[in-house]
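Internal QA ticket QA-208
Title: Verify multi-chain structure generation after dependency bump
Assignee: T.L.

Test input:
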Amino acid sequence: MAIFKRQLHKNVKKSRVLSMNIGLVSEISGLPAKTIRYYEDIALVKPARSQNGYRNYSQSEADTLIFVKRARGLGFTIDECRSLLSLYQDKNRASADVKKFALLKVRQIETRIKELNKLSATLNHLAQNCHGDNRPDCPILNELSGDKSADE
Amino acid sequence: MAIFKRQLHKNVKKSRVLSMNIGLVSEISGLPAKTIRYYEDIALVKPARSQNGYRNYSQSEADTLIFVKRARGLGFTIDECRSLLSLYQDKNRASADVKKFALLKVRQIETRIKELNKLSATLNHLAQNCHGDNRPDCPILNELSGDKSADE
DNA sequence: CTTAACCTTCCAGCAACTGAAAGAGCTATC
DNA sequence: GATAGCTCTTTCAGTTGCTGGAAGGTTAAG
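Actual output:
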């Protein structure tokens, strides 16, 4: 056993190792150790502990963390990740549920994109009308201060 | 103008300067009273107090709050609002500064839009490839779990 | 005088982490 | 076996921008 102790960190990335310390899991999942501990706090992934108190992650727990990392990267909230995970772990799940979930998320993202597009257009318009020299008059500030004669 | 009735009655008798309680400022600015108090906590707008301890907003303080409301609506952070306000209140400000600020914000918003577009496309693609029936296989979950054979 | 609508402060919590402090454990090297 | 230099532990606090609620004081109206 002692042989593997340091090799875990250096070499063994993909082999089926019995258990992993948080540092290794952090490395292979790409999640900061802080975040992984936080995920334990919120009961997302609760690893066993070694005698010395160190967290001890199984391969499947590491996989779960990687799953969460991907789902978060796709814009799912932690709670949504929980739902996805339970669907993932449910052998009798309906993929229809997951599809519905994903499409709802798509609609939410698209709404947000529309809002941001409006913001960007408004700001850009204001900036274009701003002469950008040292004269004190500025359409952007005028607009913000509610001076209606500033724009258009 | 019904809003002002009570306040006018009360304040005009005492002084020519119109000052407002938080409820009135909330109404005319559209910001919740909670938010306005929070803005005092973070030293954005610190009103005087009446003898009874009530907050007493001047017209210009109310204007500042309206300014902040608009700027927040345009996606500026509180700290950015602070900068905008100091530019606004600086008689010698260069509108170039404001323009630069706004254009930077536009770029940030556009970056965010691009990210969201990618997310939306990925999710949408996965959903389209999901048959959406009760079979347990689901490309979305397969993708999240890192199964490369799932997609394409 | 009572009641309702104001106003006040303080405490707590949301999401999803991140930083820092203080201490214990482990490993490599001398 | 001492020591340097990692990794690991817990706990508290902070981030951003608010929002909710409790407990209580003030004011206006009927």
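Spot checks passed. The radius of gyration of chain B is 25 Å.
Status: verified.
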